[in-house]
Amino acid sequence: MPAPIRLRELIRTIRTARTQAEEREMIQKECAAIRSSFREEDNTYRCRNVAKLLYMHMLGYPAHFGQLECLKLIASQKFTDKRIGYLGAMLLLDERQDVHLLMTNCIKNDLNHSTQYVQGLALCTLGCMGSSEMCRDLAGEVEKLLKTSNSYLRKKAALCAVHVIRKVPELMEMFLPATKNLLSEKNHGVLHTSVVLLTEMCERSPDMLAHFRKLVPQLVRILKNLIMSGYSPEHDVSGISDPFLQVRILRLLRILGKSDDDSSEAMNDILAQVATNTETSKNVGNAILYETVLTIMDIKSESGLRVLAINILGRFLLNNDKNIRYVALTSLLKTVQTDHNAVQRHRSTIVDCLKDLDVSIKRRAMELSFALVNGNNIRGMMKELLYFLDSCDPEFKADCASGVFLAAEKYAPSKRWHIDTIMRVLTTAGSYVRDDSVPNLIQLITNSVEMHAYTVQRLYKALLDDISQQPLVQVASWCIGEYGDLLVSGQCEEEEPIQVTEDEVLDVLEGLLVSNLSTPVTRGYALTAIMKLSTRFSSVNRIKKVVSIYGSSIDVELQQRAVEYNALFKKYDHMRPALLERMPIMEKTATNGPTEIVQTNGETEPSVVESKHPPPVTQPTNQANDLLDLLGGNDVVPVIQTTMPTKPASAGGELLDLLGDLSLSGIPPMTAYNKNGLKIDFTFERANPNPNIAVITIHASNSTEADMTDFVFQAAVPKTFQLQLLSPSSNVVPALNQGTVTQVIRVLNPQKQQLRMRIKLTYTLKGSAVQDLAEVNNFPPQSWQ
Question: Whole-angstrom Cα distance, residue 7 to residue 2?
């Protein structure tokens, strides 16, 4: 049989292929020749054939038929054969295939070989693909090589020990005596690998972490020598002595100093030296400074050192490299809660990053800007963020609008400023705001009694300019319906009043009803506004005509409204002024932002919880029956006047009544889930008609710096229970605990068994989808007994 072609010739031949099909044909032809050679047990060219097979594997072609040939090369006495055999084993074998166990004896023999390079090959292979069984069998040989005086073998043995510990953590103590002496080694390669080994052990075992804390002074000494040492051509990278070792030591110090005062105190001085002496003109220096900053922020460092770290990140923001700017913004976002004032000093630089061309930098800068907003800088920061909202890409508008709403709600200096800000957002990015922004703004306007004339005038002007932003149009329609009389009378004192006639106002609202831009919800707002104006304007006949037209609308919702309003005009005209009078002031609840979201029949509505009980209003029986007749023809059950027992005032009592006549049963709340910044609390009530039904309200809060979007809560119970899951109040859990998402679960437990539940949580955080499962078994006995 002729000698097979060399690897170099094969590469040259494959590169001449003009098409994928031609390349495949060449590969198949060569594979057939290699298979024939393997079948004939050709020992002369086995090494060459396996090398060619590895090249084909790198190109993505199947090469599994060469696995056993790799084992034969490993068993060979020639170094060149062993080298290709071990390389093939690392590429073609892994612990999922039983073939790899056949190597164990060969590796054991080679670990005890007289040649260091053969020992090195065996260590590399074991450290790359050794299974837990192999690691258990060969850990003793690795530990022996860790104690050898040969630095070439010690560094490879240290890395192999890292793999052994990852596969079999209980073998960690075997390497403990050998690791203590590694840090006294002068060779930088051994030092580097020993620090990697120490880091792995400290991360995996709290006992090891406590044991190795006494090595902090030695690590500090090594780091100091690296900083103070002169030029060393062997370790120099861009004028810095062995930056790779410096970074590894800083990471290990970060682990050792976390939550430990003594260790943190011992490393404060060296961290300050690294932060001040490292050259920043090259990327190597920036890498060391970044690790230094992370270490300072993670340990219990002095306040002055933390300010120095944040100033380094501030300098990073001025760097031309986009990656460095992004890293700085991300790090500042993590530290802004603990070192708010220090980060505030770099506010102008952070705001400038909003103008960056890179979208990821803009997003981080936007998140950090919202985190920096407080009562002192709200006006200036909102000006910059609203300017950003005007010019940013559509992908940013939803998050930016949501952030502006939350900040304005929390820090607004005045009600006029608050209303102006939210109207500006609705004008520029109305299509991107969250669903709850319309009821929230309506509540804000209702409660700002002195601003009614100003608000309705501003909204009317905005409506004349643009009717494409549906949330803006809905709020404007509602306000015109409520305060249209103030608009026509020109009572605005905050700015020059405009002269508007009743017909002009009605023309605008009728235009919304026929506009192609209006959604069905917007048309409903506009029709209701026109109906309300029948008690505020004198043009009642025109309004009757408009309402009657929509009694035959193809939109069922609009048709139903129009039919009911027509009935109000014809049968119950004497009740119309009372029914359409102005909305009362709505009192805010402090539990969940501007409104408490209440579940009713699977839909979310803003509910108002009154703190004082209004005096009972007695209406004639026939008037109440008239109201019922509006909703359903002539089959009306008469209303019988009964005296209701007076309930004591209790926080949230009325809110619970909306959920189905619930009683406060004194069942203690519980935390069902608390992980990665997401916290799920359960509160319990009993349903009065059926004591076997437990009503559980979940409260989801988010302590991270970014909103959790697309939030879905799912629950399952054993077959002996029945579970009903109502719709959530929102699918966005606001950041920094600035609100909660609520959802009601009803559980029927007729056999009074202990309650068990499995929950599944799905959400998106910073663009990444997160999914988690959890078991909840610690329900309070009162919830199921």
Answer: 15
